[in-house]
Amino acid sequence: MTGHRPDGLRIVRLANFVTPASGGLRTALDALGRGYHAEGHEPVLVVPGATAGDVHTPQGRVITLPGPELPGTGGYRVLADRGRLRRLLSGLRPDRLEVSDRTTLRWTGEWSRRARVPAVMVSHETADGVLRTWGVPPAAAGWTADRLNARSAHAYTRIVCTTEWAEREFVRIGARNVVRAPLGVDLRHFRPELRSPGLRARHLHREEVLLLLGSRLSVEKRPGRALDALAALRHTGVRAALLVAGDGPLRADLECRARAERLPVEFLGHVRDRDRLARLHAAADLCLAPGPAETFGLSALEALACGTPVVASASSALAEVVGPAGLTAADHGRAFAAALRELLDRPEQERRAAARARAGLFGWDRSVAAFLAAHDAPSHRDSLGVTR
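and the corresponding structure tokens:
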């Protein structure tokens, strides 16, 4: 895939914090790239890595630039060499620029203005939400976020938010170049028919209810709350076990805690095999999404597609995603346990059917059309889901 397509656009996408063990962002980049390519455009993804690389993949061309690893992040790297990235962008001559990092890459908005390249920044997290999860007081987090968001809104042609919840912090500062475009789920790959009694029994270890946490094990995701919820749920007499599909800097501490408290928790690490991940989602009775700063929650949506209801943080955007197929809870273990019990009281067939029906509203074709509309790029599909 070299050169511009006759009727398409070269869409250069920049992203940090992408590793082989990444979760939602990596999935979204892959699905959108494949969708852009299917629509006749030329997607080019630029990410940081340990060494340089340049390969052609089903999601388009993927260029890797050497970037430093951020301490304490479990392997995340950033595109830190501005000079090298500027030269690459100039050589690529993009028709559109799409940036999936609102911090270290915000300078690319100014580059795009000077190069007269329309550019969008995708807000994969809220600035004030991330600051608060790292311990910044709410007032200071809000003030800092407003300043950062004002600069971002000025730097880019458009800001893309995946939910109304994520859009609020830009509405608050009066930004008028914000559009909404949801993410999606592969409804053929993640499906209820994958539910296996044998797999359930293998992971239940003589317990009765199987919970699943599919998340990076880092502070902003609050994975410890899943253990809080498990402990509180078991205290009410529910014989539940927890599967943790994910890895990150907090894993060792979480494993130590589970052993100390004798909680039935199985840590699987990063599940690279998407087929295995889909089967795990389908095997679980309920999925936990405790991250308070989530702006969408792809793992939760994959669980819904497999027929597994979700309990999510009431502080996050996931109420918009899970709808009636799940519940939200205050950010403490007892509230999560109460929501889990409420969902378990619903008839199993009813709650699983509702989960699958909800996921059916979020196909990737709808998402691709919405993102292309944000780029003012032609699409053969109806651009449902874009709100200007």
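(Above: one complete record from the training split.) Confidence is low (pLDDT under 50) at residues 382-388.
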